[in-house]
Amino acid sequence: MQPFTPFDGALLVDKPVGPTSHDIVAKIRRHFGIKKVGHCGTLDPNATGMLILVLGKATKLSERLMSDDKVYEGTIRFGQSTDSYDAEGEITETHPVPELTLEKLNELATGYVGDQMQIPPMVSAVKKDGVPLYKLARKGVEVAREPKLIHVYSFKISQYEDSEATFRLACTKGTYVRSIAHEMGQQIGCGAYLKTLRRTESGRFNVTQAFQLDDLLKLTPTELQSRIIPILKLV
Fold first, then answer.
1. Within this chain, do residues 85 and 125 fall inside the same structural domain, yes or no?
2. Do residues 106 and 58 both lie within one domain?
3. Do 187 and 216 fall into the same domain?
4. 3-state DSSP call for residue 227?
5. What is the pLDDT of residues 174-224, one digit of tens each?
6. What positions carry a catalytic annotation?
């Protein structure tokens, strides 16, 4: 067995708004000439925060790291629904927002804590017969999706103002936070979508430990080594 190199490990990136998770992987791979780079848990283009990249031999650990629990913070906008359940989608419905209070919203949020079967949204990377659902959605095709078991550990609304709620949610992998936002809107009767989302924790890693993508791309390969968590520390 060949010894590990300084480029076998994990790199914690604070993903900016705009690029896809795959775009981040491609930028790091090209810029530093690292053959094997993967990520542990997709973030939508509009989402920010903790994106764990695995490099070299550490790519074999991606499934293990991807299965870790996650923590998110963000905002939910009430009064409108979108086809993607987030701010990227087309608005499908607009309704007046009823009188809502922090107490009422937290009462509703408590109902999402625990085990639940969640149906993935059509605009998602989940595949049906090998085709990503979002590609079918672009063609106006909607298909039945298999519900998946998820678990929400906590869901707390900390602020509500001008029809927008600020929240923090801790959950298992594979949880679609935008689906929860959409369901809350349906439950209230006015519609809602996920306006912003930031992943602050993934497993034992916190976004405060992560590096800005632009800062990483200014480094030389030698300088990058000190930012990589060695593979032996991951296992």
1. yes
2. no
3. no
4. helix
5. 999 999 999 999 999 999 999 999 999 999 999 999 999 999 999 999 999
6. 44
